[in-house]
């Protein structure tokens, strides 16, 4: 393969390589000290631990809402369905009014989450770690809600939204 012996990884090549790895898509939200909601689309989200239940999200330091998340607030993660692509784009845009246009709801604890998400996890920040141009935010899951009807998730691959189909075969 060309480029395997390079001494320095070209950032454009690295972005291209990462675009070839399909990821789920989520929206992460938090409220600032004044109660105003902030949020962004993330594809770097995963479970860390079952006991205690921990997840992590990677947040771009260049995001406008980054300072809200960096102060270690409570936050919520909404795992998106395939039909949430427009909402994911809205939350990925810089400077957009992300909380108008529908598709959101407020949980009993006050978190703003995506309506009809596959899963919603409400978290208390448990720690942060340096991740270069990103901050790795670890959250302890305090509440979660699963969609009554599972369905196809939103997937991001090769700079486009898509989904996956449930396999008809058995799991290994």
Protein architecture, described:
The chain is mostly beta strands and 172 residues long. The chain has helices spanning 11-19, 66-70, 85-92; strands at 23-24, 26-31, 37-42, 45-49, 54-60, 74-79, 104-106, 112-114, 119-131, 134-146, 155-157, 160-162. The strands form 3 sheets. Strands 3-2-6-9-10-5-4 form a 7-stranded antiparallel β-sheet. A 3-stranded antiparallel β-sheet has the order 1-11-12, with no helix packed on it. A hairpin with a 5-residue loop joins strand 7 (104-106) and strand 8 (112-114). The longest helix is centred in the N-terminal third of the chain and has 9 residues, at 11-19.
> What's the overall average pLDDT, rounded?
90
Kindly provide the radius of gyration, computed on alpha-carbon positions and rounded to a whole number of angstroms. Answer: 17 Å
- The helix-and-strand class reads mainly beta
Sheet having the most strands: 7 strands, antiparallel
Order of helices and strands: HEEEEEHEHEEEEEE
Global shape:
globular
Extended strand count: 12
Widest beta sheet: strand line-up = 3-2-6-9-10-5-4
Low-confidence region ranges? none
Hey, roughly how much beta strand do the residues contain? Answer: 35-45%
How helix-rich are the residues, as a percent range?
Answer: 10-25%
Alpha plus pi helix count: 3
Report how far the terminal alpha carbons are from each other: 31 Å
Question: How is the topology of this model organized?
Answer:
Elements lengths: L10 H9 L3 E2 L1 E6 L5 E6 L2 E5 L4 E7 L5 H5 L3 E6 L5 H8 L11 E3 L5 E3 L4 E13 L2 E13 L8 E3 L2 E3 L10
Antiparallel strand pairs: 1-11, 2-3, 2-6, 4-5, 5-10, 6-9, 7-8, 9-10, 11-12
